[in-house]
Write a structure and sequence with these properties.
The protein has 3 helices and 39 strands. The chain is mostly beta strands. The chain has a single domain, classed as TonB-dependent receptor, beta-barrel domain (Maltoporin, Chain A, Beta Barrel). It has a 22-stranded antiparallel barrel. The chain has a 5-stranded mixed beta sheet with strand order 3-9-10-7-8. It has a 4-stranded antiparallel beta sheet with strand order 17-16-38-37, with no helix packed on it. Strand 26 and strand 27 form a beta hairpin. 50% of the residues are buried.
């Protein structure tokens, strides 16, 4: 959302810790009612592109779409997906997970799956045909982040189910024009700069840089990373040619997940015990280039985007056996991934107030991986007092190889038609061609030499479609009320998780049909904005593990619920934000193998899927002097297992910041997870019955200088 001045969104995730809610609300009201009311620009005027690719006010789009401005992100000091999305209703994105402490596991509509959403950076699917590349995602120089609930089955094809997150950086020649340096808990240091470089003739350019070295409450866990994004653009012929060059270096030292013992987490292991081998690391170098050309034509606009990325990854980790014996399996992986993306489309006026987009795209992915496994590599005490040996000193008893090639092509057409001023119809169809070829092998060296290998290919051709309608029921000045409904049909080839296990089969694509209905609007001369939606999504062909340890299309899920958010701008420097959701995410089909027998868990709640999420927040961001903000969240009761026998209670977290600005310089004290809650927030796919915990409380002192 936006206003006359950028403000920070804050909130609390819904809950049982009512004293937090009441305290924050009381303080907020005391501050707010002491301030005079000043008219603000209508937040529903925010211009977005994720749902249509054509810039359009968010109030006209028949879908639930939230916007987080770059100014908000900078004011809060948010550096990761968890902080940036903390106030988007119904969304969780706890940091960490199997991909390392630089990553996150987002949840939309109650579904906790790393690969169920689409991540887009400046129009490019980030992670390509495989999985969202969260570890190399960077928010320095971000102009805004758009969050679309549900899939994007026409414009982006076979890559998402429950949500789309698009990060849009400042265009070439523009920037936040700020630099900052921060020091935090556990010896953490970070710095960043977003700079508009001098224009060379007609050539515009900008640069975003950042680096960090992060410590954690687990002394063996850590992150060292650096990122650079260069953007350039110049007029070329009748159009504009632009170039992006992106370099990311990530050095993660991962934590260990905590085991579940029966109906609760094990108490045999300390919270921050680390059982990874001594040389544990998830290291990645990523190189990315993208070029765009936009040319106006007599009867429309022609846009073309070409992108290529190369990543190489080293992944060394160990996972304890779930029997609490202290025995661990280790993996030592080398992986390279090529990601290519190309899109070309025409945008043509449709009637007096509409557009037609016709285009084609191609998403290419090629992954190579070699895995050296040491099964039963070592046994360590569960108190974490002994440093395990490095993988280089362990006997290898299994060698795996994988090469996976993917080509996802599509031809699409989408119309955005406004038959009258208050109506908007968005409808589109896409023909998808998904091709995949997979070569894999597994060589067991002990206890006896045994080789398994397979080469398989699959081609799937099928359409996907969407249709949505909105009607503005009432408008007066900046106030309005709009209702909408939409339907989307999506499919997604089964993900490749690049794990250590031998999984040679190519499975059928997962499919989903979703329905939404909601309303959005503004009141109080545009100072009060709101939106709410009902949703229903049915999954089929869900990929799950079988009793034999392999994967199969053997489950179904249903996600339904309600989400709502509101924002009250009391003056240009003060805003109050609240959000809430009720999710009912359940299996509709699944014979779950619990280690002894198959159990029918149809009707049971999905793992780590709370019914209730809520948020409440307050920010005060004047141009000079004292500024402050608080973000409070609550996550409700969940289950740690598919049978719903291991419940875990709800929890509250509070983030806060307070700063003081003199001229162009500001010093800020920032804190995350002030309540120091450490609940399980993400499940490990590699270690059975294992969970990653919420990172501990961290405090930062940040110094920022701006010349904008």
């Amino acid at each position: 959302m936006r206003g006359a001045h950028a403000t920070v969104r804050c909130g609390l995730k819904n809950g049982e810790y009512s004293f937090n809610m009441m305290t924050i609300a009381s303080c907020a009201m005391g501050v707010l009612f002491a301030m005079p009311l000043v008219s603000m620009a209508d937040a529903l005027d925010a211009i977005v592109v994720t749902a249509t690719r054509v810039p359009e006010p968010v109030d006209r789009i028949p879908a639930d779409l939230s916007v987080v401005s770059g100014a908000e992100i900078a004011a809060r000091g948010a550096k990761d997906m968890s902080g940036v999305l903390s106030l988007v209703p119904g969304v969780e994105a706890p940091a960490g997970g199997d991909a390392g402490p630089s990553s996150a596991v987002p949840s939309f509509w109650g579904l906790h799956e790393f690969d169920a959403f689409l991540l887009v950076v400046d129009g490019v699917p980030w992670g390509g045909a495989f999985n969202p590349a969260i570890t190399t995602l960077d928010f320095t120089g971000t102009e805004r982040v758009e969050v679309l609930k549900g899939s994007a089955p026409v414009l982006y094809g076979a890559t998402s189910f429950v949500g789309v997150v698009q990060v849009l950086h400042f265009p070439a020649g523009e920037a936040a024009d700020t630099a900052d340096l921060a020091y935090g808990s556990y010896g953490s240091v970070r710095g960043a700069a977003s700079v508009a470089l001098p224009q060379v003739g007609i050539y515009r350019q900008s640069l975003a840089l950042d680096g960090q070295s992060l410590g954690f409450s687990d002394p063996r866990e850590g992150v060292s990373s650096g990122h650079a994004l260069y953007r350039g653009a110049l007029p070329w012929g009748e159009g504009t040619l632009s170039l992006d060059a992106d370099l990311t270096v990530v050095r993660d030292t991962p934590p260990s997940p905590v085991l579940r013992a029966g109906t609760s987490l094990s108490v045999l292991t300390p919270v921050d015990a680390n059982f990874n081998p001594a040389d544990a690391a998830i290291d990645e170098n990523k190189y990315h280039l993208a070029s765009r050309y936009s040319q106006p034509l007599r009867w429309g606009t022609w846009d073309t985007l070409v992108s290529f990325a190369y990543s190489n990854v080293t992944d060394r980790r160990g996972f304890l056996h779930p029997d609490s014996s202290g025995t661990a399996d280790t993996q030592n992986q080398r992986r390279s991934i090529d990601d290519g993306y190309g899109d070309t489309h025409l945008t043509v006026p449709w009637g007096a107030d509409g557009t037609l987009i016709v285009g084609a795209d191609l998403l290419y992915g090629l992954g190579h991986q070699t895995t050296l496994n040491s099964n039963g590599a070592y046994t360590v005490p569960l108190d974490g007092s002994i440093l395990p040996p490095p993988t280089s000193g362990l006997p290898v008893n299994e060698v795996g190889t994988l090469q996976d090639k993917r080509l996802f092509a599509g031809q699409y057409a989408q119309v955005d038609w406004k038959p009258v001023d208050d109506w908007d119809v968005i409808a589109g169809v896409r023909l998808n061609e998904a091709y995949e070829h997979k070569d894999s092998s597994d060589l067991l060296l002990a206890p006896a030499l045994q080789l398994a290998a397979d080469s398989v290919g699959k081609t799937v051709i099928r359409p996907t479609e969407t249709i949505g309608v909105s009607e503005r029921l009432w408008a007066e000045g900046k106030d309005e009320l709009t209702i909408y409904a939409d339907y989307r049909h999506a499919f997604k080839p089964a993900a490749i998780d690049f794990g250590p296990d031998y999984t040679p089969a190519l499975l059928r694509p997962e499919t989903a049909k979703s329905y939404e209905a909601g309303f959005k609007g503004a009141a109080a001369a545009g100072r009060f904005t709101y939106q709410a939606e009902l949703f229903w999504l049915d999954f089929a062909n869900l990929v799950v593990a079988t009793s034999a340890g392999s994967l199969a299309n053997a489950a179904g899920e249903r996600l339904k619920g309600i989400e709502a958010e509101m924002r009250y701008e009391l003056r240009p420097t003060i805003s109050l934000t609240a959000g809430g959701s009720y999710h009912d995410a359940r299996f509709t089909q699944y014979l779950f193998f619990d280690g002894n027998a198959n159990i029918d868990v149809a009707g049971r709640q999905l793992t780590l899927a709370p019914h209730v999420l809520a948020s409440l927040g307050l920010s005060y961001t004047p141009e000079r002097g004292l500024s402050a903000g608080v973000v409070a969240r609550y996550t409700g009761r969940r289950f740690l297992d598919e049978e719903n026998t291991a419940p875990v209670g709800g929890y509250s977290t509070v983030d806060a910041h307070a700063g003081y600005r003199i001229g162009r310089t500001e010093i800020t004290l920032e804190a995350t997870n002030l309540t120091d809650q450490r609940p399980p927030v993400s499940a490990s796919e590699f270690g059975s019955q294992s969970f990653y915990l919420l990172p501990a409380r961290t405090i930062w002192v940040r110094l920022e200088y701006g010349w904008h």
